Amino acid sequence: MTMHRKDFIKTCGLACLGATSVGMLLQSCVATKNITAPIDGDQLVISKADFAKNKGHYNYIVVSNTRLQYPIALFRFSEENYTALYLQCTHQGNELNAYGDKLVCSAHGSEFDNKGKVTNGPATEALRSFPVKVLQENIHVSLSAA
Ligand code: FES
Fold first, then answer.
1. How far apart are CA 73 and CA 61, in angstroms?
2. Which end of the chain is more exposed for a tag (fewer CB within 10 A), N or C?
3. Are strands 102-105 and 96-99 parallel, antiparallel or unpaired?
4. Which residue's CA is the nearest one to ligand 1's atom 1?
5. Which residue's alpha carbon is at the smallest distance from atom 3 of ligand 1?
6. Whether 121 and 65 share a structural domain
7. Cβ(121) – ligand 1 distance below 6 Å
8. pLDDT in tens, 72-113
9. Torsion-angle region of residue 93: left (phi > 0), alpha (psi -120 to 50) or beta?
10. Are residues 21 and 41 both part of a single domain?
11. Are residues 37 and 88 in the same domain?
């Protein structure tokens, strides 16, 4: 039986809504949210609302600003607990990509966990991390420290 494109899209749409298709579910789980956030003084300011999604929260978002050479991955562990990691590989400085809870370097395959610890070489040093202050509405990442 051949499925027409229109029917396929319709089926896919329903599967996504009901999250009944494992493939679709996985895909939506690893989708990375990228935002640009302002820098105020030495603080990168991210709105907590950026973590909200239809159901629940993003586990992390990738934050850029033109003044940052590399983006920062901001992982959310709870309402009050976040980690900010600089996405520069500690091996030879390639930019890392976030996949779920993993940060992966496409240059030589190093991997880091969501705390910045090396889980796979050749990198040996943990990622640079920044202090995070959680306020009522916003999250402040201190860029001068660390
Ligand atoms: S630069 Fe990232 S593994 Fe070599």
1. 6
2. N
3. antiparallel
4. 92
5. 108
6. yes
7. no
8. 999 999 989 999 999 999 999 999 999 989 999 999 999 999
9. left
10. no
11. yes
